[in-house]
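A quick aside before the break. I want you to see a complete sequence-to-structure record at least once, exactly as it would be stored in a machine-readable document. Don't worry about memorizing anything.
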Amino acid sequence: MLSLRLTHGPRCVFESNVRDSKRRGKKGLTSGGAPGMILLNNRSVVDRMKSSLNEQTEVVRPPTLTEVVAGAIRKRIFTGMLPQGQALPEVPLSENLGVSRGTVREALRYLKDEKLVAIYPHRGAFVASLSAKQLDELYSIRSLIEPFATRLAVENGYYTPNLIDYMRTQIAIMAKAEKDHEHLVNIQADFEFHLSVCRGSRHELLIAFEESLRSLTYLAVYNMIIYESEPTDAAQQHTEILESICNDTPADAAETVRRHLEDSKTMLLNRWEALGEHNHHKSRNG
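That is the input. The structure line, written in tokens, reads:
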């Protein structure tokens, strides 16, 4: 005999089933005791209850106006419309976006927490400028946590078919985006692939930390792309990672991920340095 104590919405459905059964004269369902207590010994009814609970979906809260405005500014930063170091005055932004200055101010603070915007007293807000040190730190920490996540997931068989299929989908998106020169789409799919690598670990704190690096990673990689410095074989690189995850030992799969991130860091730092020298010569000759 299974005893369920139910409150809120689903209880109304179940109690209705009880009343209907009583009216039909069925045995095996009785109610009594404390309010909201139903005693069940009918397996088909229990199964229907479980199915009803599983079909309920979580209500998603719509974004606030501040979040919408932050998203619009974020997209302009990622797509190069607002380059690094660009001033972000509240009045033009509020007029352009059709919102109040207060909303823009809150959105900029939101983006400051993501490291996309820098706010200085008496000077205002600016699009953040990444340094070589920040790039090095970003990829150094990813080179530590993602291989760990990979090893944990492979050792425990946590990479499910659905997750593997999702990673394959991201690779396909990368390949198409490279062909169509849709740079932001390419970066989004790239990061989703790496976030999926971490999701496989089922290590919630690690996954949340990786997610927190999304905006900084977008900013770093996109600023390389707009200067035509991003390699065009991202899909192939990630295919090799996925093949290693599916076929190699936990240690070898982790090493494949680590090597990919270390190579990416070296490439970005080299091109960042080259870009800095180019801008230096341009300013001297300008």
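Two observations worth writing down. The mean pLDDT is 80. Residues 115 and 164 are 31 Å apart (CA to CA). We'll return to this after the break.
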